[in-house]
Design brief:
By secondary structure, the chain is α/β, with parallel strands linked by helices. The chain contains 7 helices and 14 strands. A hairpin with a 5-residue loop joins strand 8 (138-146) and strand 9 (152-160). The model has no long low-confidence stretch (mean pLDDT 98).
């Protein structure tokens, strides 16, 4: 069995914003449905153990919530702070545990990380994720996607070698080319980043799809189920947006068994 647990569902600033008293931020402080740490996904697998996608600045808090002291494998989508800010903390944990962590990332992402934090390689073994790798019985592949004004990121596609179940984690993307969209067709599960419900800012200033765009895209890609993550305080989980039946918002701690 494989279990996907949403440890972080927020955008780069998380929810609540420290300066904000909007409905979503206020609710996040009171009951917590909208409380969103920086985006990450925890995959527990019978064979692969604890696999973590992205390691943002909330990594320690997320591990505590998971009642974990270590992970087996880390996958990194890109080198923005909200996705790698916890690497320093993980490296320190590896040092104290006298073990070397294992992280997969595309070569250009590894290069960016080590240019900023060259000493991380003393405690974390970074392996290139340019070609497909096997994680337990999951065949995992990465591909480069447009990240709007923020440059690029990578999406990850997983296919089970026995069951054929296919799912994708694509947290930071916008304006995907037709070629970049091909791995997103006919999935069993799509996890897609959408920072706003309907983002009002000029397209050239944006970096992530919004919910309205996602609804159009899934009608084209036809995944069986879609979960939206990487959400800002613009999206309120307490509201009924009238989403399609096969589409839902992620909330912290949500579990999907596959």
């Amino acid at each position: 069995m494989t279990r996907l647990i949403f440890r972080g569902t927020g955008d780069s600033m998380g929810v609540p914003r420290i300066y904000c008293d909007c409905g979503a931020c206020s609710e996040a402080r009171e009951t917590g449905l909208n409380r969103r740490l920086r985006s990450s996904l925890h995959m527990w697998d019978e064979e692969a153990g604890n696999v973590w996608i992205d390691c943002g600045p909330d990594f320690g808090e997320q591990l505590e919530a998971a009642n974990l002291r270590e992970i087996d494998t880390l996958l990194i989508t890109h080198a923005h702070f909200d996705h790698i800010g916890g690497l320093v903390e993980w490296a320190d944990a590896c040092r104290w545990q006298q073990k070397k962590g294992l992280a997969y990332a595309p070569s250009e992402v590894i290069q960016e990380i080590l240019e900023r934090f060259p000493w991380l390689s003393n405690h974390i073994h970074f392996k290139a994720f340019d070609e497909p790798v096997c994680i337990g019985k999951w065949k995992a592949a990465s591909w480069r996607v447009n990240h709007g004004k923020n440059g690029y990121a990578y999406a990850f596609r997983f296919e089970h070698l026995d069951t054929g179940f296919k799912w994708v984690y694509c947290s930071d993307s916008i304006g995907l080319t037709e070629e970049q969209q091909k791995p997103l067709a006919n999935l069993d599960l799509l996890i897609l980043g959408t920072s706003f419900y309907h983002e009002p800012f000029a397209y050239e200033t944006r970096s992530v799809y919004d919910v309205v765009e996602a609804i159009d895209l899934i009608s084209k890609w036809k995944p069986k189920h879609t979960v939206l993550t990487h959400m800002s305080h613009d999206i309120d989980a307490c509201k009924d947006y009238g989403l399609p039946e096969q589409l839902r918002l992620a909330v912290t701690g949500m579990v999907i068994d596959i």
